[in-house]
Every structure is written in structure tokens, then in C-alpha cells.
Amino acid sequence: MIRIRKYTELNKTDHDRLFNRFGADFSSIMIDTVAPIVQDVKNNGDSAVKKYTSRFDGVDLSSITATPDEIEKGFQNTPGELLSAFSAAAKNIEEFHSRQKREDIQYDRNGITLGVKYEPIERAAVYVPGGKASYPSSVMMGVIPAKIAGTEDITVITPPGKNGMVPDIICAVCKMLGVTRVLKSGGAQGIAAAGLGTETVPKSDIIVGPGNIYVTAAKTYLFSQGLIQIDSLAGPSEVLIISDGSADPKWIAWDLLSQAEHEEMATAVLLTTDIREAEAVKAEIMKDIESGSGRHEIKKKALTRSDIIVMPDVESAIEFSNRYAPEHMEFAVTNPMAYLNRIRNVGSLFLGDHSPVSVGDYYSGTNHILPTGGAARFSSGTSVDTFIRRTTFQLLNREALSEARGPVNIMSGAEGFDDKHGGSINVRFED
Amino acid sequence: MIRIRKYTELNKTDHDRLFNRFGADFSSIMIDTVAPIVQDVKNNGDSAVKKYTSRFDGVDLSSITATPDEIEKGFQNTPGELLSAFSAAAKNIEEFHSRQKREDIQYDRNGITLGVKYEPIERAAVYVPGGKASYPSSVMMGVIPAKIAGTEDITVITPPGKNGMVPDIICAVCKMLGVTRVLKSGGAQGIAAAGLGTETVPKSDIIVGPGNIYVTAAKTYLFSQGLIQIDSLAGPSEVLIISDGSADPKWIAWDLLSQAEHEEMATAVLLTTDIREAEAVKAEIMKDIESGSGRHEIKKKALTRSDIIVMPDVESAIEFSNRYAPEHMEFAVTNPMAYLNRIRNVGSLFLGDHSPVSVGDYYSGTNHILPTGGAARFSSGTSVDTFIRRTTFQLLNREALSEARGPVNIMSGAEGFDDKHGGSINVRFED
User: Fold this and answer.
1) What does the buried/exposed string (b/e) look like for B173-186 if buried means 16 or more CB atoms within 10 Å of the residue's CB?
2) Taking CB atoms and an 8 Å limit, are B261 and A420 in contact across chains?
3) pLDDT of residue B332
4) pLDDT of residue A117
5) Inter-chain touch A293–B419, beta carbons under 8 Å
6) Does this model's pTM top 0.90?
7) Which of A155, A231, A401, B150 could form a disulfide with A125 if both were Cys (CB 3.0 to 4.6 A apart)?
């Protein structure tokens, strides 16, 4: 069960567990499991995808993509209340992501025009986990930024249900967002199909979205071959909450439990400046677990790896969080905006005591495909930028090239390119 | 030697060679060579780095970083003319990259404040190839964008010279740019030291810059373990030139030769709408090769894999290039700006007949660390963005949370999180 510790009492083992918590090694899965599947899909296309879907999902597909009729029927089967909720959420997500668009850059300097063109990646695939449950919210979080970026060719990849069909609600959200291609094959075979292309699905240039270890290993394997772009490596979900004791302990407890409810490997950490709050939050958590409500066993297991840590002050808690680099951070203190510029390395940040993580998981507009395991030190959540690439450009006139001539000859000469690097400028000034 | 072909005569083998030209598989190098080195550096830090530097570079280091005195002496030993050239180039590169900075986003919607904070990645490392020659220009291209992004901790990684010292000119450019930490160990051991941290060098969050196959495999290996961010996988350098016959054939020939001069594996492709130009360019190339000038053998080998392709028109040449996704593209036609919005998937674009690639390699201001092998379909050159990460944030008041309550309960219920995801909102409205 979740423990209460003082920050000053944490030892080296605790520090390692908290601050160096990724370190997944996909090498053996990549080589032993993923590489043969990728090779098979490369050689045999759709038929290999069908073979692995039959083997791993127990489903025999006639086509590896959903028919227009299947998508339409799934939409029709979805309750109106659910459609309305997703539609309202999609509107917020569209609004938030639309603000991230960039203007191209262009300027002149002494006879040279320079700039940056921001272009959409042409073909994107969004992985949506399936199996025991389906995750229509992840369709929104992958597809909406891609569409706003201008990506025209979008594939949703998701495992089929036991009946060989794409779950209704996934169909519904795809239809709502204008996605017409749903590859109904999960795992490494689904990633391989989208990353390499087959008879039925085109090669995607980028694959985003969370998945299990085979999905992540397959994405990483194709990335390591220079074939696709990917988002960051998906690990277990996590929240770090900073509290100064001003919020209701039960609210904080419920937010920790909300994270624990995700999966056994989820992590929830509370940093509080108030020892009484620490005890009150723990008591609320114990009460919930003892009540056996909801995903009781999952929450219990997740909480064994979770911590309540008593910090000397809010400043030291922020320093802890900056180093921890959480996927989600809740900053439940009075006047949270005053600290905004000091908080770093967070996937998505929830400010104040009325911003639980679940509101960002579904509704507020921010993205929920986020870096985990400390990867927020160097990577970011899915955004419009994820689907944008840059082309830089330059146009010189004769005078600008003349100005560059001397320096380029000197620098390229120093690097051993003393013939044609300088020469390709010099030749333009020969008679 | 370089061949002239008509576009319509290209067969499937040509298409594969041109359009699916990456496909490097680093798996065996990662597992057999890189993984043991990484493990050794993880366990033994500096002493492992020294061991491999002794083994692979034949140099016994007393320290794995350059001393301040070593950097100062390198600077002092560098001719003033060279310092001036690099200083002028650095000014242009700083100007170009400064324009890429982004403003944070913040806005309100019915009781919710949302936004995006753009933050620098805290610790970055820049790999600078060494060995036979040194590449001070790559120091600029990696370090300047990082500094403009706001990254404060920067490590330059470069192999030592045979005398165990960092080459003078590398020291000089480091000093010019305010870099004080130079890790003098290349290959997988240098990447491992920067990616993991040792007694002497801190762990970097991101490693950029080109290198040989061991460097690229080591970067990819650490990325695949979720430990660092990297730029795109470095492959052989390449140029694609589109010409409408308006430029002097000798200029075009020199630009192709400038690329060929880089390395035996470099690729140069000319797409021209003018068969006479094709022949004239080929004749100039032959003349140069026969003259035995410069890096004669390297150019000759590179040209065996290069093509001059005669295209029906400029439009079809642009389509070819968009599919090819070249690292460098020269667009040597009259009125090039008119086509700018139709050109996609280029690392760096050189417009008109007075913009040879070498001006961007060193001087114009654009970056020269660029995606190769077709990776420009989904990745971009090094820029300020490379060193920036995003934190999204949201702050809800009670009314905004109340509005979210219904939809979040409905959506989270549909995904099987029907207890605490909705519950963490509901609890805030209990009496």
C-alpha cells in the first residue's frame, strides 16, 4: 500500500526508483519477436497481417481494413449521448490544437532571402489500443492534431474485437473525424502494415499513439531502420501531484486513485508540504481500497509502487517534479499560476484544485498522448507539431554569393573540402 | 560514371533504388557492438570510455574532457582568418535560428485557462565527427540552435586527434560559442558517456549531430531504451538538383561534384528538362574527373550511384523530388519562388542558380544537420525546435469543471474507467 515518507529520508534506492524509472530494454523483443513479423509483412503483405491477427487475436479477417459499411454501422449503433460527449470534447481539442499552428518564416538580408516552410507530414497512422476495452478518446488525440497540421492521409490502427469487427465507438469517432481507413490489426503486425505499407494500406510516414510493449517495440524497430517517425516510447501512465494542503484530501486521494485505476504498472506520487494532509489522503485511499470499489485489484497493485512524500516547501516540490518529469502533474496549491514559469519537464500540467487529470484525458482540449517514465525531460505530448516538418530555404543573388565566397572557401578548406565546396561558388565568378 | 536516363525509361529497380533508399538495419551493430560498450560505460564510467578510446582511437586519455587550457590553446593556435570566417558564419546562423523562437500560448474559454509552454531541453550534446578531418562547422550547427532555444548545459562530443588533443579549430569554435565541456571520445563510447553520464560528464537529454554507423547505432540504441532524444538517423549525404537549362552547365556540374566530394557513399541526382543540358553537365563532370582534381577517387565512386534524369517538365521534377525527399535540393530554374509552395519534403532548399549547397553548408544561416535517405518525408533539419519541449497546461474553475463533468463521466465509462476517472470530478461536487 501507498507509503508516507519524508523527502529527507529518501535513500539512493528511492532516488533511483523515482528519477531513473524508465530503462526499458526492447532489444530482445525487437530482435526475437518484432523483426520476423516485420520481415514477413514486408514479404507477404496482407496475408502475413491476417496470419498474425489470426494467431494473436484469434480472428480471421477477410480484409485487413474496415469496410465503409462497417464504419457506418458502428456509428449508427453508438448511443447519441456518447456521440454528443465525444463531439463536445472534439470541439475543445480542435480549438486547443488549432492555436499551435505556425506561420512560415521569410526574410531578407543583403541579397539573400531565407526562410522556413512548415509542412504537414503527408501520411500518418494513429495506433489505438484495444483488446479488453476500446479507447475512442485516443482516436481524437491522434487524429485531430494530424488533421489540423494538414495531414491528408490518416490511418487508424486498432485490434479487432472477438467478432472480427472494429468496436462501434471507434467507428463512430473515426466517422465523426472523417477517418475512412481503419486497419483492424493490432500489435507488431498492425504497426508493420502501416509502417511498410501493404496491398491494402499505404506506407505511413509517422506512427503515433500508445500501445503495449509489442506495439512500442515495433514502432521503435521501424524508427531504428529510418523508415518512420514515431512519438515517444509509451510506458505505464503516471501522475505526480504537488499539494500545499489547501485542497480537500479526498479530492487528492481520488486523483491518485484515478491514476492507479489505469493499470497495475501505473504510478501515483503525492508531494505535500502538509503532514496532516499526507495522513488524511492516505486514510481516504485506504477507505476506498477497503470498500472494494471499481478496479480494486488493479488500484491496489499500482499503489504498492506509489508514494506520498512530505516536502519542506512548494519550491522543493517543484524541483523534485522538474527532475521527475511526470507525464501528468497536478499542482494543487493556492495561486498556481504564480509558479507556472518555474515548472518544467511535464507532459500535461493541471493547475489548482479543480483540474483533475481526467478532465485532460478526455475533455479540456489538451492532448493525452504524453511522454512517460521521465521522457518529459526531452520529449513532448502529441501536438500539431508532431505532424509538421520543416523545410528551410535560401535564395542568393550574385552579390550575396560574392560575400559568402571568401568565408566558404576558408571554412571548407579547413575541413578538407578544398576543391568543389569552395569551387562551386568560385565557378560562378569565372569569366 | 554518372548516367543520363529518361524519366519514362526508369524501371522498378531504379524506382526502388531512388525512392526506397534508406533501409539501414542497425540491429546487429546495436546488439553485437553497441550494447556491450553501453553496458560497460554504465558500469565503469570514465575508465570504460578511456579503454575504448585507447582501443579504437589509439589514444590514452588522462581525462575524457578537454581542459580549459587545452581549449584556450586551440583557440590561440587558430589563424585569425579562420576565426573571422567562422565568426561571420555564426552571426548568420544565429540570425536565422533566432527567428524560429516561439511565443508561449495562453487563452481562456468559459472558466478554463489553457496553454502551451515552450521550454528548452536542459542538457544537450552535439556530436562532431573527427578522425581524418575535423568539422568545426558542425559545432556551430548543433550548438547555436541549442543556445538560442535556451539550453544551458551543452557538451560537444568529438574524437581526439592522434596526439590525444581536441583539434585546434574545434576548440576555437567551442570557445567562440561559449562551450566549455568537450568530451574527447568518439564512436559508441562517446555517445554512451553523454547519454548515460559518467563521473566527469553529466547525462544529456538529447544528442544530435552526424556520425559514422557506430555513432548512429549508439544514438538509436539509447533512444530505443527511452533514455535520450535524438535527431534523425544520419546516412550518406545527398543532393537533388532540378534544372530547366537556364543555368550554366558547369555550375550544375560543380554542384553535383561538390556533393560527390563528401564521401564515396554520397549521392547526386540531376533532374533536368533539357537533354542538351544533361549532356553538357555530364561532359563537365567527365572533364573534372579526368583532370584528377581534388578528392578524385571519392568523387568517382560517388558518381557511379548518381543519375542525370531527363524530365518532361518542371512540375514532374517537383513531384519526383517530393517523393525522393532529398537532404539538399537545388532548384535552379528561372523564377524559383513561384514554385515554393509546391516543393515539399526537403531538408534544405537552395533556390535559383546562385545558391549552391556549399553556401548553406557553412554560411547562409540555415542548418546543415539534415535528414537523409528519404527521412525528409517525416523529419526535419536541426533547428531551435530540436531543443524545445512543450508543456501543455489547464486551470479550471468550478463552473468549467461542472461543464466537463457529464461528458467525462460518459466517455470514461465507455472506456471502462467508470470509477475514479469520472469520480475524481464527482467528488468535487459532493457536499
Assistant:
1) bbbbbebebbbbbb
2) yes
3) 97
4) 97
5) yes
6) yes
7) A155
Residues 6+ apart with CB under 8 A from A9: none
Q: Are B60 and A262 in contact (CB under 8 A)?
A: no
Q: Residue A198's pLDDT is what?
A: 98
Does the pLDDT of residue A112 top 70, yes or no? yes
Among residues B238, B261, B277, B327, which one is catalytic? B327
CB contacts of A258 in chain B (<8 Å) are 417, 420-421, 423-424
A11-25, A379-393, B57-71: least confidently modelled range = A11-25
pLDDT tens track for B98-130: 999 999 999 999 999 999 999 999 999 999 999
Rg of chain A in Å (alpha carbons): 25
Q: Is A368 in the active site?
A: no
Query: How much is the average pLDDT of A117-145?
Result: 95
CA distance B329 to B122: 33
Nearest chain A Cα distance for residue B133, angstroms: 6
Residues B128/B141, Cβ–Cβ less than 8 Å: no
Residue B248's Cβ-side half-sphere holds a number of Cα atoms within 13 Å equal to: 15
d(CA A154, CA A133): 23
- From B105, B400, B410, residue closest to A100, measured CB to CB: B105
Say which of A70, A284, A327, A330 is annotated catalytic: A327
Looking at the partner chain, which of B99, B229, B422 has a beta carbon nearest the beta carbon of A378? B229
Per-residue model confidence as pLDDT tens digits over A322-358: 999 999 999 999 999 999 999 999 999 999 999 999 9
**CA angle, A166 as apex, A163 and A168 as ends, to 5°?**
100
Q: Starting from the edge strand earliest in sequence, which strands make up the sheet with A206-208, in order?
A: A181-183, A153-157, A123-127, A206-208, A229-230
- Report the largest interatomic distance among the alpha carbons of chain B, rounded to a whole angstrom: 90
Residue A168 C-alpha cell reads as: 462501434
Cβ-count burial A383-418 (b if 16+ within 10 Å, e if not):
bbbbbbbbbbbbbbeeebbebbbbbbbbbbebbebb
| Closest C-alpha to A255, from A348, A344, A359 | A359
B328 is catalytic: yes
Residues forming a β-bridge with A392: A116, B348
Selected for mutation to probe chain B from A81, A152, A391 (highest B CB count within 10 Å) is A391
Please judge whether A137 and B415 are an interchain contact, meaning their C-beta atoms are less than 8 angstroms apart.
yes
pLDDT at A103: 95
Beta carbons of A411 and B226 less than 8 Å apart? no
Closest in A122, A262, A364 to B396, CB measured: A364
**Above 70 in pLDDT, residue A23?**
no
Give B-chain residues touching A351 at CB under 8 angstroms: 113, 393-395
| Residue A429: predicted pLDDT | 96
**Which amino acid, one-letter code, is at B274?**
D
Distance from CA of B298 to the nearest CA of A (A): 12
C-alpha to C-alpha distance for B299 and B161, rounded to whole angstroms: 26
Which pLDDT does position B28 carry in this prediction?
84
A287-305 mean pLDDT: 87
